[in-house]
Amino acid sequence: MQRIIGLETEYGLWIEGLAPGAMVEESRALVRAYQGRYASPWDYSDEDPRRDMRGFSVPQLTRDPEDARFDATGPRYASLSDEHADRILPNGGRLYNDHGHPEYSTPECLSVVDLVAHDRAGSHIVHQCALRRAAELGKELRVYKNNTDYHGAAYGTHECYLSRRSVPADTLIAALLPFLATRQVFSGAGKAIIEGNGRVQSAYQISQRADFVSVDASVDTLHRRPLFNTRDEPHAPDADFRRLHVISGDANMSDWATAMKVGTLALVLDAIEAGCSAPRALADPVEAVKEISRTRALDTRLRSADGSWTTPIRLQRDYLALAHDAPSDLPERQWVLDEWDRVLRDLETDPMRTSDRVDWVAKLELLTRFAEEDGLDWSSPVMMSLDLAYHDISPEDGLQRALEQEGLMLRIADDDAVQRAAAQAPSDTRAFIRGFLVDRHAEAVRSASWSRIEFFAGDDVMEFDTRPLVNGSLARLNSELAVCTNLDETMAVLSRYRASDRSKE
Amino acid sequence: MIAQLEERITRPTPATPDRKSGDGEGPVRPNVRRPGTDELLRRMRRVDPDAARKYRQRSGE
Lengths: 505, 61
Known about the structure:
The complex is a heterodimer of chains A (505) and B (61). Chain A has a 6-stranded antiparallel sheet with strand order 5-6-7-1-9-14. Chain A has a 3-stranded antiparallel sheet with strand order 17-18-19, covered by helices on one side. With 505 residues, chain A is of the alpha+beta class. Helix content of chain A is 40%, strand content 16%. Chain B is mostly helical and 61 residues long. Chain B is built from 3 helices and no strands. Chain B starts with a helix and ends in a 7-residue tail after the last helix. The chains are: A alpha+beta (505), B mainly alpha (61). Chains A and B meet through strand 2, helix 2, helix 10, helix 11 and helix 12 of A and helix 1, helix 2 and helix 3 of B.
């Protein structure tokens, strides 16, 4: 299956002199500082975050008591779209305010390379908005691509993978839990503190999110977060597909880590859909996440459900073997397999060999160097501030960006690719249709979402259902659209396509 | 596509000679790179030491 993939990033926002309670409004203001073409509102009719892929819905999601206190005193908005200040972008992505965090969702991609460029384009777009908002306020403003405020609040970076509903939910959960628990060895972003449950401990750990993972599997996302999120919002034909919504991963600054975080999981999904199960079940996946992250011992012994023992690296090698033998349509399949093998080999030999691509290692090296020169240890607040600065998305101030600029970390999407991704949708997915309509006919777009686009056609409203357009390349349709010079031609192509047999693609 | 990917990746210039291998029993102590570049050090020195203490967020998803 040619699998569409995407990333959703909630950014952290800090503004000189403003309290956290002001950030909901400021996040809206930052999004509204976007100056390019866009369409609005977002169509929320297909969203149901309470629906669980195991076949039930919960009455409501569990909320963080601290946030409930915030929300009780916050402003009231006319609509969800007004609160979110939705911007549907010409690249097919979405920019909005999500409860005080500027959030960028990439357009749907088929290729890991495209996805890295679009993820990075999100940071570019948000940074441009931040510069404008800072100028409006006359205050220092910083945006961070990370997952924690070091005071117990977490926010997410979510991965989305089209997946086949033919795999039973419990089978999918069991097959992925050990993988999700151990992939942090190469996808962890690193954190200079251990937090959670009201306690704070000075130490460096592998993962930003590990402290906030509480249960194996659940539909919750705001509190008591799961390793495996069971939300069931396919944005695709319901009978055939799910959208796997992974919320336990870290926000990566490294292009390579973003590519491998998504590429390896896409290959593991291919193996699962081909009938493979987990190499072994862990006795306690949540405990394993925290154990690996906090000890940084990549050969730490993990107890399996059958009483045997394994290690994070050995388990990842087992998944690599599954992926190696499974068929896959991921364009970068061989590159991902080769890099997966190389990083596990390097981590086994000496983790510091991976500082040119693995975020937690790059940050550890940087902070350790600074600490040695200044006689600091992990209990110094400076270390957390440097950790935070690693995630600053500003090309002029961010520490990870400096490592790239000095040639010390790999890049996959260069500046030209990022600029293109900020302006153009991928040419082979349904995102192109959304982006094309926004770019050429934004005034005609009545609403849009991942699932549908409604636009004004004279006195009528035309709805184009994009849910069926998920399985395979849409390059042919998109090339026809690209040469349309007006809305009538565009509508004619979409109408013809809607009526035609998609098997021609 | 793979060829395209390889073209896009910019390999960093090795900043130090190859590191010694670890003993295979877990992470070894970081072999810290020295000296750093002026720009990197300048950025690190410019970081507000209290930035993390002042940084408070509402939880997200």
